[in-house]
């Protein structure tokens, strides 16, 4: 795929004119045409693969009408360990650490959001907010909605062994996702787990340069 680039009309002081790719995200009906006309990379939050596929097809169709091609990225959290059991034990620890009052307060605030993307995130765990077992918030094999109980925006995480997380990354990549924006809790620790456990698998599979 080609990646059209947009020139900045006014370079920053002291900098020569240059170009930057434009990243854009939005799930509302008006957001689609904007992405199709102007974005180089369309970003989505981590919904189950079937829902992501529908969204990507939507943007592809709109971009085609504009005579353009758009690349895709996804925003996710990651919780990966040497074994499946260890990864889910950590997810359980995160869930156990949440105060139900904090969950209720966060959900009340998020319910007032007019963001369609946020509404879609909340819908992923709408009927599961009072669960005590982390597995009950698994909305697709290895995709966990527990983060969204207290966090706005990206509310899902890839949870599992290194190979299982790599499988999910590959599943999203097969849909057309080119870029993955990942984080974790605590961030530095999860970054090390991913770099040392998952990246070698992805590289072996030819998914990383």
TrEMBL record:
GO biological process: alkanesulfonate catabolic process
Domain Luciferase-like as annotated: residue spans: 17-179
Domain of life: Bacteria
One Pfam family from the record: Bac_luciferase
Any one Gene Ontology molecular-function term assigned to this protein's record: alkanesulfonate monooxygenase activity
Gene3D superfamilies: Luciferase-like domain
Protein name per UniProt: Luciferase-like domain-containing protein
UniProt source species: Aeromicrobium chenweiae
